[in-house]
TrEMBL record:
Protein name (Swiss-Prot/TrEMBL): ROK family protein
Classification via Pfam families: ROK
Record's compositionally biased regions (Low complexity): 9-22, 436-454
Domain of life: Bacteria
UniProt signal peptide: none
Protein family: Belongs to the ROK (NagC/XylR) family.
Listed InterPro entries: ATPase_NBD, ROK, WH-like_DNA-bd_sf, WH_DNA-bd_sf
Annotated region described as Disordered, given as residue ranges: 1-31, 425-454
Length: 454
């Protein structure tokens, strides 16, 4: 049984809530059952290998009989799939390995970023069922034009997922900006040129007019995907999302730190030099003006719409401007990160987005600044490494954050009412072959970033 703490949610849930039986109230019994149902599903989804009912009883502190009854509900709700039984080494009935169901329920991840739009559908097992990407320049675009286009991508992804028999749990949109979880969905996305937009244009496109869309900051969502991909117990790190802008997400013990408004992690606007270049935010010398993609490309004498691979190739060929641009960007990044480490005592940094392929070119410059500026440098292991969650991590994290809501409350999705799934009777359930090879897998949904209804 793997008990990765991908989510502080796993640790935060109380084990063995059977003690609540002393209340005796029907409502409490029902709430307890629903809580335990989520607890069992979470353990199955977060495990890196198939688990048995016995494993779940140990992991949750619930009785074998209770676990079995809950698993049966999850199986009939097509959230969990039973693999072929395997013989035990000891006497007794063969164990039935349990895995998250593939292709039965999906979260929709949407992303609007400066140089691409994307939509994907991911199932409980972590598989991408469908994906659509459009690459273009969306700097200073209009949300009223971009969001219907994004909605069209999302709509096609939903159609593809439902054609496979999947049920859509909801949608989440990743944005490179400040998402207000108090007064409105989007305060500012400076590189898109969006400010105080209500994003309602997205909700004019079916099916988002009915299922709605939650909204969250792209770096926070990318960190959700990174937590899942790391397979580490309750990791703490700063996720740095390098694009035209630079986002950050502070992960503390497997949980994304949100701040008072959900606005934490604006690393790109940390001041590197108050006498530096003008920034899109109105200040001068922000990290973005040295290490954002546009700034790196301009300093290297390359067109800003070229892929970052052009910068890598120029540096590899020994181009002085390209290497100087990377040295300047890496130094600025190191200065900003040293402030972060001095403040937080979190000494691991994950470089995502364009920084992932650039890590080898940046890391020495970053480390030089860290060793100079971080007070505790002699005693801590400061790590700066490339992200393992791949490209489009924010879009994946958006879909995963939707699925996490399902895992937290499977009863809301029909797990306590098997009849609610009768609408799917005409659709064949995934077969054992669909789940063949469902051994170790990159499961686990991790904690969500803050999300608000659009
Ligand atoms: Zn700025």
């Amino acid at each position: 049984m793997n008990a990765r703490g991908t989510g502080g949610s796993a640790a935060a849930r109380t084990k063995a809530t059977s003690r609540a039986h002393s209340t005796g109230a029907g409502a409490s019994q029902s709430a307890m059952r629903e809580h335990n149902l989520g607890l069992v599903l979470e353990q199955i989804v977060d495990a890196t290998e198939p688990v048995s009912r016995a494993d779940l009883a140990v992991g949750t502190g619930l009785t074998r009989a209770t676990v079995s009854a809950l698993v049966d509900l999850l199986v009939s709700a097509r959230m969990v799939h039973e693999l072929e039984p395997v013989a035990r080494r000891t006497a007794g009935r063969p164990a039935v390995p349990l895995v998250p169901a593939r292709g039965t329920i999906v979260g929709i991840g949407l992303e609007a970023n400066v140089d691409y739009l994307g939509a994907c559908a991911i199932d409980l097992a972590g598989n991408v069922i469908a994906e659509e990407i459009v690459e273009d320049d969306f700097r200073h675009s209009s949300p009223d034009e971009v969001l219907p286009l994004l909605g069209g991508l999302g709509s096609r992804v939903v159609d593809a997922a439902t054609a496979h028999g999947a049920r859509v749990a909801g949608a989440c949109l990743a944005l490179p900006g400040i998402v207000d979880r108090v007064n409105g969905p989007l305060r500012l996305a400076p590189n898109l040129g969006w400010a105080d937009d209500d994003l309602s244009a997205l909700r004019t496109v079916a099916p988002f007019d009915t299922i709605g869309v939650r909204v969250a900051n792209e770096a926070n969502l990318a960190a959700v995907a990174e937590i899942r991909a790391l397979h580490a117990a309750r990791p703490s790190f700063l996720y740095v999302s390098g694009e035209v802008g630079i986002g950050g997400a502070l992960v503390d013990g497997g949980v994304v730190f949100k701040g008072d408004h959900g606005w934490s992690g604006e690393l790109g606007h940390v001041t590197v030099d108050p006498n530096g270049p003008d920034c899109t935010c109105g200040a001068e010398g922000c990290l973005e003006t040295y290490a954002g993609k546009d700034s790196l490309m301009a300093a290297a004498g390359l067109a800003r719409d070229l892929p970052v691979e052009a910068l890598i190739e120029a540096a590899r060929l020994g181009d002085t401007r390209a290497r100087d641009a990377l040295a300047r960007g890496g130094r600025a990044l190191g200065i900003a990160l040293s402030s972060f480490m001095n403040l937080t005592d979190i000494n691991e940094v994950v470089l995502g987005g364009i920084y992932s392929p650039l890590t080898d070119w940046l890391v020495d410059h970053v480390h030089r600044e860290l060793h100079k500026r971080v007070l505790t440098a002699p005693w801590v292991d400061m790590q700066v490494k490339a992200s393992v969650s791949g490209t489009r991590a924010a879009m994946s994290g958006a879909a995963l954050s939707v699925l996490r809501l399902v895992v937290a409350n499977p009863g809301d999705w029909g797990a306590l009412e098997p009849g609610a799934w009768s609408e799917l009777d005409g659709i064949p359930a995934p077969t054992a072959a669909d789940h063949a090879g469902a051994g170790p897998r990159p499961a686990g949904l991790g904690p969500a970033g803050q999300e608000e209804d659009a």
